[in-house]
Amino acid sequence: MQNNTIRLGGVPEHFNLPVHLAIEEKKFESRGIKVEWTTFKGGTGQMTKALRNDEVDACILLTEGIIKDIVKGNPSKIISQYITTPLNWGVHSSNNNPIENYKAIFDKKYAISRFGSGSHLMAIVDANSKGHTLTEDQFVIIKNLEGALDSLAKGESDIFYWEKFTTKPYVDSKQLKRLGEYLTPWPCFVIAATDKVLKEQPENIIRMLRTIHDSCDQFMQNENAIAMVSERYKQKITDVERWYHNTGWAMHGWVSDKMIKSIIYHLKLAGIVGKDEFIPDLIWKRDNDKLT
Fold first, then answer.
1. Which residues contact 151 (CB under 8 A, 6 or more apart)?
2. Per-block average pLDDT, block size 10, for the chain (292 residues)?
3. Spatial CA neighbour of 99 closest among 164, 180, 40
């Protein structure tokens, strides 16, 4: 691997289109770096494992998921916010499942991509916020969205949390039914990188971030963005419009300490992080630079 190459990962969802556009338009090369993209269908839990195993240098992943994993020993840091708005989780079941009431889900079986994933953490945080405690034996590991559709259809699991616009086509086709929604109490996606790449390629990481932020800025101003997302991700224009106008992308690398504290508070409240557990440095601290 060349020392100007950064291996970047993310989920196969519409949030990451600005990064794909930057790759396609060779925006990273114009700043003297190469970005190699890896798609992770298994979501945040799969990406935190890849960061630990040095399979990638950086990932765009759920804020609460990477915070939890850094606390648990992942040698990585948050280097930037990516999506500045909350994630709207759809709470789903199979269309054939008799459950109809959102309030009746908390003693059911939950499909999760893996332990520590967003689908796992959000189910716990949501239940906790409503006065319920989920137990480990309620969770069924399904790896990804396709696995969830199969598990729910077979009745092996009852409930599945996933980003609502990504699952909307399956709701429309009656494969899934949406019982409710849960909005995260914090901005949903950040970019994290391994301590190794931050030590070896700090200037290239900053160049990568500058390029991503520029592409996000351009995407938010692009009059064709909604049509582009609809075509590439096979979603209805009306659904994309709602998603697009409720989503904001970061245009700088600043990460809020208050946001981090709030997430730690919720993770402790839900028992995902121990009340007295040591909290390491979570954010990459860097000097102001003049790179372009």
1. 111, 140, 142, 157, 160
2. 86 96 98 97 94 98 96 98 96 97 97 91 93 96 96 98 95 97 93 98 97 98 97 95 96 93 90 93 76 45
3. 180
What's the pLDDT at 1?
Answer: 44
Please state which CATH number belongs to domain 5-86+186-269.
3.40.190.10
Residue type, 117: S
Whether the Cβ atoms of residue 10 and residue 57 lie closer than 8 Å to each other: no
- Whether 5-86+186-269 shares its CATH topology with 88-183 is answered yes
The total number of residues shown for the chain amounts to 292
Place of tokens 């939950």: 110
Tokens of 255: 């990460």
Tell me the pTM: 0.90
> What's the first-to-final CA gap in the chain, in angstroms?
23
What residue segments make up the domains of the chain, in order of their start?
5-86+186-269, 88-183
3-state secondary structure of 8: strand
Q: Where are the beta strands (DSSP E) in the chain?
A: 5-10, 34-39, 58-62, 76-83, 88-94, 110-112, 139-141, 159-163, 176-183, 189-194
Tell me: domain 88-183, CATH 3.40.190.10, correct?
yes
